[in-house]
Amino acid sequence: xxxxxxxxxxxxxxxxxxxxxxxxxxxxxxxxxxxxxxxxxxxxxxxxxxxxxxxxxxxxxxxxxxxxxxxxxxxxxxxxxxxxxxxxxxxxxxxxxxxxxxxxxxxxxxxxxxxxxxxxxxxxxxxxxxxxxxxxxxxxxxxxxxxxxxxxxxxxxxxxxxxxxxxxxx
Length: 170
Prior knowledge:
Jelly Rolls; 2 helices
């Protein structure tokens, strides 16, 4: 499912891909679900992108993070996820603490069948706020994730805590 003209996949291409995968009920049902921890299976993404099928037990989330220079898309295949994001572009490398301005917080509820695409340096956290139901989602990133930057947040203060590389999650 690569873009037809051989170009790099765009955010829209990735969103189309995750929609198609999420519609595969057999694949979604095949993901092993753990009662306490997220589970995931790597998928073949379009045009050399990185893709994942992720299971979310009730109450689990990612914490604040970004995907560095990758664009991406994700869609809830079953259950419901919530995304908290920042409508602000972060400065380049070299900072550790940032004071956020008022009005940058966004929240999206993403029930089954809903998703979104995002650009480079998109800072967000995704969680399954349900107390009793798993969620399953499909994610795709291009280029394949070079790193994930993890943040902590206290009020309006965002702190860079850790930089993970592919060898940390594959």
